Amino acid sequence: MLLDSASLYYRAYFGVPDSVRAPDGTPVNAVRGLLDFIARLVQDHRPDELVACMDADWRPAWRVELIPSYKAHRVALEHAEGPDEEETPDTLAPQVPVIEAVLDALGIARIGVAGYEADDVIGTLAGRAKGPVDIVTGDRDLYQLIDDARGVRVLYPLKGVGTLQITDEAVLREKYAVDGAGYVDLALLRGDPSDGLPGVPGVGEKTAAKLLDAHGDLAGIMAAVDDPRSKLTPALRGRLDGAREYLAVAPTVVRVATDVPLPEFDPVLPAAPRDPAMVDALATRWGLGGAVRRLLAVLQH
Fold it and tell me: pTM above the 0.85 mark?
């Protein structure tokens, strides 16, 4: 089980009231919510291994170089060296180090790699997996990794993590008329304002799906643009032709990396905490006793 941690702690932050606070009054709603999410996921799905994948760089320079608008509207502070700072709610950012400290003390594997997003870590781990993989994320970009033959699914939270949409190739075909591999082309054609991806002007999800159905993939679509005998309407041909520069680089930006240099780690779920004293200290300091006890009870069974 691979967790898109930022996606889940954002959901926890907005789903758990910020009246959930540490003894000193600091909000810990994202921490408490994420720990409860993990407990529920382990209880319901019983994974043998679990990795919390982190955004060591939420806006990698190699993606921005290709498409400068990539996530640009979410930049709070630019840095000449190192990753830019993402605009996050004031009371969420300080909770992330607490989340990391608690996961480490529990012994739950946590991986973030400089220069890469959590999506890239997930893509690399899913590619290396010997058995089935469940990816837990509220980010549809990861639909591209769905692969029935390899048992790779996306568990997409509809309400908390108690109600998950189990997304496999049948669901993808029903909703988008593509398979996992085709989702990259669909996503880059229609664009995604939340990620600063412009897409092809005038091409929405339905048009993108029809184009892919008729021509197979992006290369097939562009071959049709160049073929005067193809049945593309003049307007659509013009739009696609005008977007060539974007379409040449978009696949590299939208496709998750599968070759991230991962550190050594142990993905096996711990039956007991790695550092019990530190778990106790963190639970006391941040008022997380109940959430930690619930998670430990699930891990012990």
Answer: yes
